[in-house]
Specification:
alpha/beta; Rossmann fold; 6 helices; Peptidyl-tRNA hydrolase; EC 3.1.1.29
């Protein structure tokens, strides 16, 4: 079993924020792969299902971004899993909008949800970094991250999320390079 956590903030006022793109990715994965109903557990919302032949638990922490690690740590401990069994989907300022990169381990790079996760389980988990771009100046970062995707970005957002869902089986199999390669090809179309 693997746990795939999407990071975001709970509540309708945050739903379209760039900071919530991790939640969006998990929602699309659940829908595209026919996951079961949403259940409240581990201080968040979970859905169980399979991608390819791999059992996946999707998790959206309801703890707000800065405390995401509490929910993720609780789920990992319950299933007796380690950081190697976790994939976290989250917004990345240092990637161009709608670019996707996968890496394992590393620091938090200023992302509070990742910082919280590292504090609770260590750093050796897989990260799916979803590019939201940098606004150009550090004084505008907060309003950019906590702002909604623009109407002009909606098509690109939908295309990126759909491509993640379509290529998710490579992630489930642990073939990160193939996932990124096939995703990049889809996003060029």
């Amino acid at each position: 079993m693997q746990i795939w956590a999407g990071l975001g903030n709970p509540g309708p006022k945050y739903a379209m924020h760039r900071h919530n793109v991790g939640f969006m990715a998990v929602d699309v994965l659940a829908e595209m792969h026919g996951f079961g109903p949403v259940q409240k557990k581990f201080q968040g919302w979970i859905q169980e299902g399979t991608i390819g032949s791999d059992k996946i638990l999707l998790l959206k922490p309801a703890t707000f971004m800065n405390e995401s690690g509490r929910s993720i740590g609780e789920a990992l401990r319950y299933y007796k899993l380690g950081p190697q069994d976790l994939t976290v989907f989250y917004d990345e300022l240092d990637l161009d909008p709608f670019k996707v990169k996968v890496k394992r381990g590393g620091g938090a790079a200023g992302h509070n949800g990742i910082r919280s996760t590292i504090q609770h389980i260590g750093a050796d988990f897989r990260r799916v970094r979803l590019g939201i771009g940098h606004p150009g100046h550090k004084d505008r970062v907060t309003s950019h991250v906590l702002g909604n995707f623009a109407k002009s970005e909606q098509d690109d957002l939908v295309q990126m999320l759909g491509a993640i869902g379509a290529e998710a089986e490579w992630l489930a199999k642990g073939n990160d390079a193939r996932f990124m390669s096939d995703l990049a090809l889809r996003l060029q179309e």
